[in-house]
Each structure stands twice: as C-alpha cells, then as structure tokens.
Write a structure and sequence with these properties.
Mean pLDDT of chain B: 89
Radius of gyration of chain A: 23 Å
Strand content of chain B: 25-35%
Order of helices and strands of chain B: EEEHEEEHHHEHEHEEHHEEEEEEEEEHEE
Low-confidence stretches of chain B: none
Oligomer: heterodimer
Radius of gyration of chain B: 23 Å
Mean pLDDT of chain A: 90
Helix content of chain A: over 70%
Structural class of chain B: alpha+beta
Strand order of the largest sheet of chain B: 6-7-8-3-9-10
Distance between the termini of chain A: 26 Å
Shape of chain B: elongated
Distance between the termini of chain B: 30 Å
Order of helices and strands of chain A: HHHHHHHHHH
Structural class of chain A: mainly alpha
Number of strands of chain A: 0
Chain lengths: 253, 347
Amino acid sequence: MNKFKSLRLGWGVIPVVIFLGIWEVTARLHLASGHFFFPPFSAVVAEFYYLTINGVLGKNFLSSLIRVLIGFSLGSILGLVVGIIMGWKNMVDKALSPIISLFYPIPALGWLPLLMLWFGIGEVLPIAIVFICSFFPILYNTVTGIKNVDKNYIHVARTLGASDIEIITTVVMPLALPNIFTGLRLEAGMAWRVIIAAEMVAIPTGIGALMMKAESLLRMDIIIVCLIILGAMCLFFEKFFTFLEKKVTSRWR
Amino acid sequence: MPLIKFKNISKYICREVNLEVFNGELLVLLGPNGAGKSTLLNIVAGLIDYKGSILFDDKPVDKFPTHKRKIGYLFQELNLFPHLNVVSNIAYGLRAHKIDPHKIKVRVGKLLQLMRIQHLSSCYPKKLSGGEKQRVALARALALKPEVLLLDEPLNSLDTQSSKYLRMEIRQLQKKLGITTIYVTHNLTEAEEMADRIAIIEEGHIEQVGRPEEVFFYPQSKKVSDFIGSPNILDCAHCQDIGKGLLEVDCGGLPIIIPDEGNMVKKIVLLPRDIYISQTKPPGPDINRFKGVITHINLTNELVRLKIKAGENNLTAEVPYHIFEGMDLKVGKEVFLILKLRRIKSI
C-alpha cells in the first residue's frame, strides 16, 4: 500500500521536476528569444532567498496577508450573518434581494476608482476591496445553503421544541455548511487575486506593489517570486477551507 | 392521553373535516396520495395554519405553537439530522427543553433500550439501515413523552419484510404506552393490521370511520368500496368448526374454509386480488377451490376485473393485465377459483 502511495506521489512530482529542468536549461542556454526577460529557476530561488533574508519579502507579504485576513474575515462574517437572516426570513430576502442582485455581478476591482475617492490611498482601501470581494459571494452561498435545507428538518426541530435560534444554530447552519464552505473556499483564493491587483494599481506596499516596483526595474526574478507566492497563498487558503470542511462535515456526509 | 377532535377543519384540499380520535387509540387515516392525510397531521401538529378548530380533551389548542401541543411526529422521510449521531438525534428535543444533562442521559438510555438500538448509539444516520433509522426516529419522537403520536407513512421506504416487522413493533409499543396515535397510510394491509379504527379520506373528505371490519364489510360509499378494492362480501348460511383453528362456512352453495376468529360468522369478505384464477384444475387439496363461469370482463389500466359466477355468488377477481394476456379467458368460459385462506375476513 505504502509503495503505491509513494509511487502516486512520484507521478505528481516528476512533471514539476521536468518543467523546472526545462525552464533552467532553456534560460541558461538562452534558448528563448529575449532571454534577458527570462531568468533561470535557480536565479529565482536565489532571489527568493535574498528577498527573505533582507526582509523585503516578509514585510510586503505581511502587509498583503494582514489586508486579506482582515478584509476576508469581515466580509465573510457579515456575509454569513446577512445570509443567515436573508435565508431564514423571507421578507428580508425579498427586500434585500434586488440590491444584492444588482451589486453581486460587479467585479470587486470595479469598485476600485470609487473606493480610492472615498477612502484615499491607505490601508482601508485594500481591506475594503477584499471585503467586497468576499461579502457578496459568501452571502449568496449562505442564502442558497439555508434555503436548500429540507423544510422537514425544520419542522422536526420545531415539533421537538427548538426555538428559532436553536433551529438556526443546531440544524440549519450545520446542514448549510457545505454550501457555505464552497463560498469560503472559492473566495479565499479570490481575495488574494484581488488584493494583488489592487496593490499593483493603487497601493504602495504589499506583494502586488513589489511586483510593480520589480517591473519598473526589469527584475523578472522578483516578479516570478511574487507570482509563486501568490499561487502558493491561493492554493493554501483554498486547501485550508477544504481541510476545514472535511474536518467538520466528513463524519456525517 | 387526550381525545383529539377535528372541528370543521379546512386547509388546501381538506374541507370541513370533522373527526374524533379516542383516548389511547390508534386511528389510521387511510386514503390515496393527495387526499389530504398529511395536511391533517400537520394541522394537529400546528405546523400549518388552518380554518376550524383542533381540540385536545375538549380544549382548543389552535393558538398553541407546535412544541406546546405535546406531540411526537414521525415524518415520512424520517428526517434524522444527518450531522448528529443517534444519541444526539434522540436527545435533540430534550436538550431543546433544557432538561438536566443527567436526566437526558438516563432517558436516552431507556429509549435506546426500548427500541433495541443501544449498539448504534454513536452511529451517524448515513450508516444506518432503513429499519434502524425508523427506530431512531421513533425514539426521537417519543423522547419528550408526547401525549399524541403522529406517524406519516413512516414505513414507506422499507422492504415488505421489514415493514411488516416494524408495523407489529409500532403497534405493540403504541399499546404499551397507551399513546393516542394518528397513523397515515395509503396501504390497506398496513391500515388493517394496525388500526383500532380506520378513517377513510378521499379528496379531503372523511368518507367513513370505523373498525377495520366495519369498513370492509359495510363500505358506506362507492368511493370507500373502490378504495378498499371493491371486496366480495358473502353471506354465510352454516358455520361448522372443523378443528385446527378453521371453520367451514356455506356461502351461496360454496363450502369455504376460513380462519376461526372465535365469533359466529355471518359474513365473509375477500378482496378481488385475493382470488387466484386458473384455467386447469389447481394442484393441492380440494379446499377453497371452486369452479366458476366468467360472466363479465372489465379491462382497466393494468388490471383486468373478472366477474365470475360460482355457486349462487357473483365474485369479482382481479388479474394483472400481463397475466391476463397469457391466458385464454372469455365470457362464458369455465375457470377454477382459489381463495386465499388467510386473506378471508369474517364477522
């Protein structure tokens, strides 16, 4: 069994190694046209090490991470709360649905010019962008999750004497979790994509800003380091919520 | 346990329904799909609003929310909470009522024992079989010691054998607890085996209420007669004990053997589907096997109804269409009838 497991793992690693090998050789032997713009993988690793040691990467990464965590947490919590109320109370749903339907399709970055004017260039701006990016999809998934809960579960809980709050917390929310987690998982990755874009356009600190500075200095190696970090963070956040969902729901699903 | 009265209840298809359920009895609401059976249960439970009044022991409970009506409700789909294990499912109502955790533990333990599901206590519903789910759902419904038990076609999803077994269990449990119960089903056999009384409901109207034998022997309308399968009702002239728990009765010239239920037999009833037809003399002892002549053939959707003159009786038998197609049956043709002994009911 272990042998098969390690074999499967090997199959996943081999293409990555081949890809990195081709990359390294192509760059070193200047096989690609415009080779000045195409650093070898080893140079990228070296730059990653250098940026880490001198603290530039850590400082910018931390700025982006804090913005994502604050914006995403606020957006998720408010999305969940409003989503629960809308999913549970039809009247609230009917009242808010038209507004939500209007705002939901607007891409988060579409808000950027307006938010720049409202909040100026500062820490509030990226947090607000991530907040908007998280709020609407999580709200939408929560409402859908709650509305999809079989009404008979609610009837059962009611006949057993549960209050509305108890029904929401002990029946509806747990049963809506799969939908809610789908929203969280997708938007956690999306929050990183949005923050990088916002930092590139309007904010002087963070991974996105670092990328823009590197672009003006023609530092492809730094840009690639930033892109790898972005990819890794999107993946990590998505996987974290997949893990959390499994942990919470795998016993009964 | 309370007496339940429905007074002029109207909702959806149900119009001006009046019905009484006696203390501690099991009343079966029997009717086809869409007749309004589940609606009436939901009304008793207070899950939907309605016109008219529901009385428990002559006191209206219309203003009482569901949890104050002291009911236990077993839904058709059972709806065990999938995210809670068996113990937490059973304890759900007790916890909602903020009962002391120690008392909850004791009560749940008793219910697990009563339903013989102690070994499943930590399982989640997805791991349970249909019958096990049934027991857990019933335990959950009984946890708060309800005064009224509402069962909405709870055995629908089970295979015939498990369904039969659980029917008996539910019936025994209901008698033991003496709990006033309304049991909804469209299954005639289920109704007949479980009911103290049957209320036949069609298109939201109660057609007849009575003991199972009353409903079978004296259907008060064509709708009732049709629903219970237009049974053959035969008058009996003589009745003779032939031992081994059997009686021989003479019905219009036919000596019919029936189970002895300890009473004088005046009439017997037999559903058309409980009469087998054979073109050749059937094998086996010459008991409840008679010759007859087909007098009428009525083709419906999937069934063929045959009117057969046997002795002085005009019997109705039913044959599935695909079997009828393989037989050479015509009006005037002589056939053999086999009456299913255990399906004959008598009064």
